[in-house]
Design goal:
Distance between the termini: 32 Å
Structural class: alpha+beta
Number of helices: 4
Strand order of the largest sheet: 2-3-4-1-5-8-7-6
Order of helices and strands: HHEHEEEEHEEE
Largest sheet: 8 strands, mixed
Strand content: 25-35%
Helix content: 25-40%
Radius of gyration: 17 Å
């Protein structure tokens, strides 16, 4: 439930308007939202699922053979699938997730128009950024993770 409430709060705060205040206006405000640069959240488009070996193979078969998705990236214990609308689902074996894990089994991320601005805004508002922005040039895709107010891991991503 905390994940849903946090997602709704972010979508409400970021999704309906791009904040376009001048630097002077921003510096005069004490509200945490004054840290927001010009970016929008387009939706929740990144999903990561951590599965044990037998479930990993079953899930992979479902995605590839039933849903006819083709992996866009394959590594030992990791598969990444992109869908026509830009959504991405990644499946992982437990020993292949980042060191900060993905909340046990599932994580999701927000598609933003400017990942640098979104990262700065979240950091200034007090959220812990995990790692650096990763640019996957062959996919025209950037991503970064952060810890939300509930202590769970979420993602930011930008698609160009």
């Amino acid at each position: 439930m905390k994940r849903v409430l946090f997602a709704l709060a972010l979508m409400t705060a970021f999704g309906s308007t791009a904040f376009s205040q001048s630097a002077t206006e921003k510096s005069q405000q004490q509200d945490p939202q004054s840290a927001l640069a010009e970016f929008k959240v387009h939706g929740i488009t990144w999903h990561a699922v951590t599965l044990k070996k037998e479930k990993f193979e079953s899930y992979r078969n479902m995605l590839e053979k039933v849903m006819n998705l083709k992996p866009m990236m394959e590594m030992d214990g990791v598969r990444v699938y992109a869908m026509e609308n830009g959504s991405i689902i990644e499946i992982y074996l437990p020993d292949k997730v980042p060191a900060y894990k993905y909340n046990g089994d599932i994580a999701f991320g927000f598609r933003v128009t400017d990942i640098e601005a979104a990262s700065k805004a979240l950091e200034k508002a007090g959220y812990k950024m995990l790692g650096q922005i990763t640019d996957v040039k062959e996919m025209k895709y950037k991503f970064r993770h952060f810890t939300g107010p509930d202590g769970l891991v979420y993602g930011l991503n930008e698609q160009n």
